[in-house]
Amino acid sequence: MSRPKIEKRLGMYVFTWVEEQVVINVARIREHRDGHTTCQLTVRLLPPYEGSGHLYQAQFNLSAARARLDLAKMLNARYNAPWPEMLEQFCVYSLELFREGEPIIEIRSVKHPIPPPFLVKPLLYENQPNVIFGDPGTGKGYLALLVACCAQIPWKDNPFGFEVKNEPQKALVLDWETEEADHIYRLSLLTNGLGLEEQVILYRHCARSFMEEIEEIHQKIADAGITLLIVDSLGPACGDDLNPSAPPIAFFNALRRLRVTSFIIAHTSKGEGGKKTIYGSTFFTALARSVWEIRTAQEPGSSEMQIALFHRKSNPGKIQKPLGFHFSFFEDGLIINRTDIAEIPEFAEQLPVRMRLEQSLRGGSLTIKELGDELGIKQDTIRKTLNRFRQRFTRVGDKWGLLTRHEKEVPEVYK
Question: DSSP letters of 196-212?
Answer without folding.
Answer: PPP---EEEE--S-TTT
